[in-house]
Amino acid sequence: MKLKNQVALITGAGAGIGEATAKLFVQEGAKVVVADRNIDLARKVAAELGEHAIAVEADVANTEQVKAMVDQAVSHFGGLDILVNNAGFGTLGTVVTLDEETWDSVIDVNLKGVFLCSKYAIPEIIRRGGGAVVNLASTISVVGIKDRAAYVAAKGGVAALTRAMALDHALDGVRVNSVAPGVIASSYYDKIFETVADPVAFKKGLEARSPLNKMGEPVDIANMILFLASKDSSFATGAMFTVDGGYTAW
């Protein structure tokens, strides 16, 4: 068991990559805080994991809710060893077409959320003698994509912030890395499939982004997060690990 007796806080853990990571962590011996803005989803995941998990409602862009989330993790499980900053969302728009409110919302959740969660979780991780922070960046941190200006900016910021955090806390025993997923099958895309004129063609287009000609699965990313959270990656910090089916190798 790679995470035996470790306590992990995972944001956005009610579905997708976060859910897959929570389940994998428990299999590997961890106790997990399943945090999500949608408490019903969080409770469903936590119920499946039993006594090894608790559900916490939190908006990662809200300082008071983030503080309460970290406090609950520590009070319930006795400490904190791992933080996975997974919560995030994207929206369409260029710098011309985006309104300021939407821009702020995307930046707040995807980038400010990483800042706030790390700000309050890292001191607790240090108190336990060190541990790991894993941030979810994206392949668009490297290559960009049209009509996603706010999301590209936010995820680029996550990649850069990861490097800064790694340098700041290396001597505290806290390793900080990021994962850059490619196109991953999720409820996000399921909803899009319901709205596009030709779901089959749309899905084929997503699959064609990868030389492997397929979408990834949440567990593909969860496996990398596990690696970075465990001692298997003890000499890795300040790095971004790309898991995109070869998309950025084109």
From TrEMBL:
Superkingdom per UniProt: Bacteria
Pfam families documented for this protein: adh_short_C2
Keyword presence, Oxidoreductase: yes
GO molecular function annotations of the record: oxidoreductase activity
Classification via InterPro entries: NAD(P)-bd_dom_sf, Sc_DH/Rdtase_CS, SDR_fam
Extent of the signal sequence: none
Keywords, alphabetical: Oxidoreductase
Assigned protein family: Belongs to the short-chain dehydrogenases/reductases (SDR) family.
Protein name (Swiss-Prot/TrEMBL): SDR family oxidoreductase
Organism taxonomic ancestry: Bacteria, Pseudomonadati, Pseudomonadota, Gammaproteobacteria, Pseudomonadales
